[in-house]
Specification:
alpha+beta; ten-stranded mixed sheet; 18 helices; 18 strands
Length: about 650
């Protein structure tokens, strides 16, 4: 066999010049050289077609092209391009792990409408530094307001302008050392540390208002704020944008609106619910929903679920009001605030033996409180009074008096409390699901366990630390150290213009229970249209599998986790307490008995102030015999004079 010559393959731009036999379909008569020439010719044609296909592509915006490439295999008709494009975008938008570039895309707040709403939420305040945040101040623990502000910003519900040097992060910094290392403090710009950032909360453009300002450690179950937030409602684009869009449509005058499509909502959903939308969907969404009507509840963002996905488990959004009155202000529109202060009876562990069994002059055994006398004293607080001796004076407000109206005050058993605003069907529902043990905490059976009581007080407004001062006096009455008439003495400001220096009650058991916004001041019934998590009207707006109340991420499921953790600690601590009491020969319970059991040795007085135990106070000094603070007028004058001195110093006045 002769050696076959090698022919190099032609390039895509070349064509072979080898002679072709007359009968191209019959290869039996081909010689080796003719077969090789034919194969080279076919390979050349194949390479030319492959090169043309690689270059033959159209962009999505080319409406004149007959077709576009599809994967590597072939072509798809023009009429199917939009369907494939939507399918591709939908698969990208449903990704659970968006790319970093997508998360970092700038958010244009002006592309969305806003609306003013009211939010009702609850929090356990034990690990927070109170509700209100003060710019220029760095607290050892976050405030509720700080955590809420960062959650609203993280969800893109508010987009206030931030000053240079302010903290732009949306993540809460926990731990005192970490906070001091990150944030600078100071009232003047010269005090700021350039290596740190300022924790300044800006509510610019948010129309923000708050109902109450709870102290450090105090909880709230019905706190309310008003705020302007991002909305799903479509808006007309700005005139310059409309002009550009009109030019693109060939001068056709059509109103252009921006809607949030289902793909956008899925694309926005991240670990906390809503982020910035996918801009490549906007043009298609606009043309789809220009004429769609907007329902202010069904088509709106699910504010409760969005915020609860970001907030810690001990802060829960409970409800939102879609249409508060035009003049609504969470602080000034509130006509009644309701507080509860929880305590047990006995208030602290009684001393065993003869010392503990001894009753004081009021006939009260150590550790126990006289509830009836406490109720008598509480009723004296009702009405319009000047409470300057039952609060802490804030001289910066320069108040001419401390008059406030208390509409209700009483001491009641917790499980018998008729002022807890619980719906009538709640008890039966809890019973059907076997949750009786949750709501019956503290029930006393034959004295086996301490009873749980609450001091309930309602009023139009309260002064700084007013409730804790009132509770402190009630505890002194309950222990038999003061008579109920002490309340009359403290309310008589002409006789007692300066507050005695007594200590106020502990902060942890105090709860801002509810805030009331009535239509009629004669009937303190809340008139706001609250939509609670799980309500039927809230379901269409949800993007989660649950209903927002039960199920994964629901309000109840998250609070169940918090409750169960606390309940397990209660059970373990209670079991350990029972075990320790029952161990030994029992002689410790009898120790201290003397030959003369009616005259046991004397000891220091224990004072209960709402904490976990009483403190040793030595010999008790009656309240009205304690040193007096300056009068309200003297405190106001001292503050005003100090303010003038500081202002003159800044202005260089000698």
């Amino acid at each position: 066999m002769s050696t076959t010559p090698h022919y190099p393959p032609p390039t895509p731009t070349q064509t072979t010049s080898a002679p072709m036999p007359p009968e191209a379909g019959d290869y039996t008569s081909y010689s080796n050289s003719e077969l090789i020439s034919r194969i080279s010719h076919l390979e050349s044609q194949l390479r030319e077609q492959t090169t043309r296909l690689a270059q033959f592509t159209f962009s999505d915006d080319d409406s004149n092209g007959p077709c576009t490439t599809h994967h590597l295999g072939g072509l798809i008709p023009k009429r199917h391009r939009s369907r494939e494009r939507r399918r591709s975008r939908r698969s990208r938008s449903r990704s659970r792990t968006p790319s970093p570039s997508r998360r970092a895309r700038p958010f244009d707040a002006s592309a969305y409408s806003t609306r003013r709403i009211a939010l009702k939420f609850a929090y356990l305040g034990h690990r927070y530094n109170g509700f209100e945040h003060a710019n220029g101040n760095v607290t050892p623990a976050p405030t509720i307001e700080e955590v809420l502000w960062k959650a609203l910003r993280k969800a893109r519900l508010i987009s206030p302008s931030l000053a240079d040097g302010a903290d732009t992060s949306v993540d809460v910094v926990w731990g005192e050392k970490e906070r001091l290392a990150r944030y600078t403090r100071g009232d003047n710009p010269s005090d700021y540390d350039e290596t740190k950032v300022r924790l300044d909360l800006s509510w610019d453009g948010c129309e923000y208002s708050k109902c109450g300002r709870t102290d450090r450690g105090v909880s709230a179950f019905g706190q309310v704020i008003g705020v302007r937030v991002r909305s799903n409602k479509p808006i007309e684009k700005r005139s310059e944008d409309a002009a550009r869009s009109q030019k693109k449509r060939g001068g056709k005058e059509e109103p252009e609106v921006h809607h949030q499509s289902e793909e956008e909502q899925e694309g926005e959903q991240d670990m906390f619910g809503m982020m910035v939308g996918d801009s490549e969907n906007e043009s298609e969404t606009e043309s789809k929903t220009e004429t769609k009507s907007f329902d202010p509840v069904k088509d709106e963002l699910s504010y409760i679920s969005i915020l609860n996905a970001i907030l810690p488990a001990d802060i829960r959004m409970l409800a939102w009001c879609p249409d508060p009155p035009p003049t609504f202000d969470a602080r000034f529109s509130c006509r009644e605030r309701r507080y509860k202060y929880f305590f047990t009876n006995p208030a602290f562990c009684p001393t065993p033996g003869a010392l503990g069994l001894k009753k004081n002059d009021s006939g009260i055994r150590e550790g126990y409180l006289n509830i009836e006398k406490m109720r008598i004293a509480a009723k004296k607080l009702e009405g319009l009074h000047d409470f300057r001796n039952l609060c802490k004076i804030d001289a910066s407000k320069q108040m001419p008096n401390c008059e406030r109206r208390v509409t209700f005050a009483d001491v009641v058993k917790f499980h018998e409390d008729d002022h807890n605003n619980t719906p009538p069907f709640a008890a039966s529902v809890m019973s059907q699901f076997g949750f009786d043990s949750i709501t019956s905490t503290g029930v006393n059976k034959a004295g086996a366990r301490p009873e749980v009581y609450t001091f309930c007080v309602h009023g139009t407004a309260f002064l700084w630390h007013q409730v804790r001062c009132m509770v402190a006096i009630l505890f002194l009455v309950g222990q038999g150290l003061e008579q109920p008439s002490i309340v009359d003495e403290l309310l008589d400001i002409e006789k007692n213009p300066g507050r005695p220096m007594y200590e106020m009650a502990d902060d942890a058991p105090l709860v801002l229970w509810d805030c009331i916004f009535p239509d009629d001041d004669s009937k303190m019934v809340d008139s706001l249209d609250w939509l609670y998590a799980g309500d039927k009207r809230t379901l269409p707006s949800l993007t989660t599998k649950g209903d927002g109340k039960f199920g994964a991420g629901g309000v109840v499921d998250e609070l169940w986790t918090v409750w169960r953790e606390a309940k397990m600690k209660e059970i373990l601590a209670g079991s350990l307490l029972d075990l320790a009491i029952g161990q030994g020969d029992g002689s410790s319970l009898r120790r201290g008995a003397q030959k003369d059991a009616n005259h046991p040795p004397s000891r220091s007085q224990k004072l209960f102030q709402g904490g976990d135990n009483a403190r040793i106070a030595g010999k008790y000094v009656p309240v009205m015999q304690k040193p007096k603070m300056d009068t309200l007028e003297a405190l106001n004058a001292k503050f005003a004079n100090g303010k003038k001195v500081r202002r003159d110093a800044r202005n260089g006045v000698v």
